[in-house]
Here is the input.
Amino acid sequence: MLKLYNTLSRKKEEFVPIKETVGFYSCGPTVYNYAHIGNLRAYICADILKRTLKYNNYKIKHVMNITDVGHLTDDADSGEDKIEKGAEREGKTVWEIADFYTKTFKDDMKKLNIQEPDVWCKATEHIKEMIDMIKKIETAGYTYSAGGNLYFDTSKFKHYSELARLKLDDLKEGARTEVDENKKHPRDFVLWFSLEGSKFGKSHTMKWESPWGTGYPGWHIECCAMSSKYLGNQFDIHSGGIDHIPVHHTNEIAQAETAMNVHPWVKLWFHNNFLIVKEGKMAKSAENFLKLGLLEKKGYRPLSYRYFCLGSHYRSELNFSWKALDNVENSYEKFKNKIIEIRNNKKGGTTDTSSHIKKFESAINDDLNTPVALAVTLDLMNDDKIAADSKYAAICKFDEVLGLNIGEMKENKIEASANIQKLLKDREQARKNKDWKLADELRDKIKKEGFEIEDTKTGPKLKKT
Ligand SMILES: [Zn+2]
Here is the structure.
């Protein structure tokens, strides 16, 4: 029996899908910059959930959106459109920015061995669906116009406080939020920004015709419109970070339930906790912005970041530090070497792995307890009574959930000519000298010889391409 924590009830519940195929929607990235590794944790957690459902033989339809319009720098409708801002920053068009960072996000997913959703959907390709849904909300009587924009009237929706357990009496907008004087109530939110109404909308490049004037949709409507298009009026699971609970997901529920006259719209809300970074503030524009590429540049492997995430429960905060990552990189290397040793070992013994399998399954089925699941995997790896091939078969089965790509783990040692070894040495020297241009040239030369370099904490390793 699979038990999952539901933010809506604040309890672990037995998972029972509505229909044969589990409908699963994940709030995707806003593609205006590289993904922060804290955001990537959310997708690793959702991936573990998806893999656990598959392990339990559920069929799944997984949908993820790409936000390429309407997400302002503050989630509660203040500030500027993130994509427009990104375009300004880089001197590119909004479309170029969105395309570029969609690609980098998908590359990150691949490197972290996160399975792709069945449906990718872009906000800008679903404006019609959003307009249709807003019309339904308007017909149901939950909207008002002010200053040219169309707003959702949260005071009319009686379930508004349920997901976030908001205390409606003392609801005030946070100090960081600029108060929008058009709103009747601070929690109200924009369904449609018209260029006349939006303070920042005059020069907005992305705009569409609508019954409420030329403009663009609010951020929250896109997830409702796209999820209902691909998963129907009600579905099983909606995932995202805990930061989405009080605003984005609360507003999604208000819109979807009024437009489609359903309750509850989503059966189970799945939220992961934050990655906590204590080593100073890291601005998105700064060179030390914590993206996956920075970890790679510093010699950490993406899958060891995944391994790091598996080591803590998705509902716990995860403390990030370079020191912690160093430790994980070493444990991951040991884990990998042990896997290879088991794979190459012909040692006999008992073939019964059932007690380990049972422990593993009860861990993952208990609200995705990956730290315990990982500990069970290590126990099995170190159990000398079990025959190596039985052990390996069970670990590969566990990897359907862990997603560490165990079948692909290879030894670091590789036969390379003296010439290539020399190029590798020269590149190391260039890196030490911070001559990145020369280091990149040498990397390309090595690539032409058929080898790729993997920078690890224990030094650079060659891989055949
Ligand atoms: Zn969303």
